[in-house]
Amino acid sequence: MAAKRRPTLADVAREVGVSAKTVSRVLNEDGPASAATREQVLAAVAKLGFQPNLMARNIRVGGPDTTVGLVVPDLSNPFFGAVASGIEDAVRERGLTLLMGSSADDPARERALTDKFLGRRISILMVVPSVGADHAPLKGHRSGGLPVVFLDRPGTGLATDSVVSSNREGSHEGVTHLIAHGHRRIGFVGDLPTKLYTRRERLAGYRSGLQEADIPYDRSLVVSAHDQEGAAAATSGLLDLADPPTALFAGNNIMALGIVAELARSKRKDVAVVAFDDVSLAEVLEPALTVVAQDPEEIGRSAAATALARLDGDRSRARTVTVPTRLIVRGSGELPVPKR
Amino acid sequence: MAAKRRPTLADVAREVGVSAKTVSRVLNEDGPASAATREQVLAAVAKLGFQPNLMARNIRVGGPDTTVGLVVPDLSNPFFGAVASGIEDAVRERGLTLLMGSSADDPARERALTDKFLGRRISILMVVPSVGADHAPLKGHRSGGLPVVFLDRPGTGLATDSVVSSNREGSHEGVTHLIAHGHRRIGFVGDLPTKLYTRRERLAGYRSGLQEADIPYDRSLVVSAHDQEGAAAATSGLLDLADPPTALFAGNNIMALGIVAELARSKRKDVAVVAFDDVSLAEVLEPALTVVAQDPEEIGRSAAATALARLDGDRSRARTVTVPTRLIVRGSGELPVPKR
DNA sequence: TTGTATGCGTTATCAG
DNA sequence: CTGATAACGCATACAA
């Protein structure tokens, strides 16, 4: 038996012996309806398993859908999960539903997803921009009244609201913290690609920290990796240098995992570490991991607040909200330079 | 200026001076179209910022939407993020897009989300059932040809495919592992509510492990918590008992974090621990954390494979796939019973 | 190569 | 209180 056609309003109406509009009225509690027909309709709806076609409804009503579309690069990175949670909490009160999809950090897939969302006439669009994506095509939507917010990274080709962490300042603070504990050779383990906004900003903060302390920038101390395993390998490479670093700065949570794993594997407890972005169990490690913590939930909440204000008619200029980071001192960042 | 009406096919057609159908043709690369009109149309589309209304399109075409809807209880739990990743990878090859939303483990919200998905005529519905949810309303859709898959937990009131971990066997193995190292007083720190399927199954495995070793079940050794902090407090309570456990079994990843955090805080390295579900940095802890690892990506892939087979016409009976767990021995589960 | 009539499932309008 | 009819934005069938 092939998939049967789904029941429509008309089917329900025929079943009961009323008009389609009457069924519609009952379901939407729109106009008046006698208790008798009401019950009959409800019974028929249950019997047939009728499910209103929201697309047909939307096409008729014309208004935007009550959905917030969110595009993230990676569904399995807890950072974006936390951001999504923050958004969800904030928009639910307004009756909006968050739907999240992945771009895999690929501009083409990001575009396909946003188009899908836009085609559905969502109420708010939130995007963690992929490297190389062009957001000029969103201009019309934004000027047409659709709130568009960039998260974690700024977009390209479109002036709209964005919410980012204080990447540069946070890294500067983290590196300065290491310097204050005597370190002068500090490795930077960053993610890829190197032109990723957050990567660039955090590297810039690292460099400004060094500069402030009159420590020359040494390119051989800056390495990159795609994932945790790569970060571990990169860490190993740094420690094998003729003049190895005495401290490491992790460019994000994944890099932090790789660094910590490699230091544990090689039983090195003398290397100081500060990581950008917190990770679970950081306080349990030995030494406990000192981090420049981001506030992903707050990033989400802030983005939601901005978007909701736009929905309420705020037509002011596009603004960039910077969510502050916070240095959490736990131990790994306060290790001294080993005597030699 | 209020939000202007979005441009439609007709608007584009008027702009160019052709019929709506012609515009439709170029956009869908459907019928033939002269290069001249083609360019004109494309120009007008860009100029007006026209975005086809996918709902109108879909309602006309009638076919299902190319979306896979996924309902999870918590967007910020990395376990579900990994499951989603597995699904995404598997369905993308078929041109399907994964969209994920949160039920917050609330039946009403789960229902609202599934209704929203169903109203959009998604191709596949995947649900991590909330406690207390009734899935009988999905019957019509499932028999109407919509693949419905339950993940991580079985659904209620609907016979359909589901994919779960080997919770009972895994727990049994984990507890038996502790017993093999001499432990007889083993605490169980589980999540809430206690009637949650995974919680019940894992507790059952714990009990069967004890029973097999002729160790009496002691209710005072079974505690529960909502979150990591709660798990830490529960752990503390267990260790304060007059006759405290010498080993702990964590009912899920969050409970594991709480246990590990509390043991670190109280500087207890003599308590053996086995956790259900792996956590990052488990191998770096001291002692490294022995776990009964789940395979969330595989759960996702398996669910996707099942659903795709249904889409291809598989009308065989509903089946339950059990994804095996794997005991990963790292150290914490092999600690001996302290001498006293 | 292009246009016209028609219908998808729903709701708004207006009449009964 | 209820129903007939038109309309939403788009695609199919057929004609030109």
TrEMBL record, chains A, B:
Report the domain of life of the source organism: Bacteria
One Pfam family matching this protein: LacI
- Tagged with keyword Transcription regulation: yes
Would the keyword Transcription turn up in this protein's UniProt record?
yes
UniProt domain HTH lacI-type: residue ranges: 7-61
- Coiled-coil spans in chain: none
Any GO molecular function = transcription cis-regulatory region binding
The alphabetized UniProt keywords are: DNA-binding, Transcription, Transcription regulation
UniProt xrefs under InterPro entries: HTH_LacI, LacI/GalR-like_sensor, Lambda_DNA-bd_dom_sf, Peripla_BP_I
What is this protein identified as?
LacI family transcriptional regulator
Q: Which organism is it from?
A: Streptomyces mesophilus
Source taxonomy: Bacteria, Bacillati, Actinomycetota, Actinomycetes, Kitasatosporales
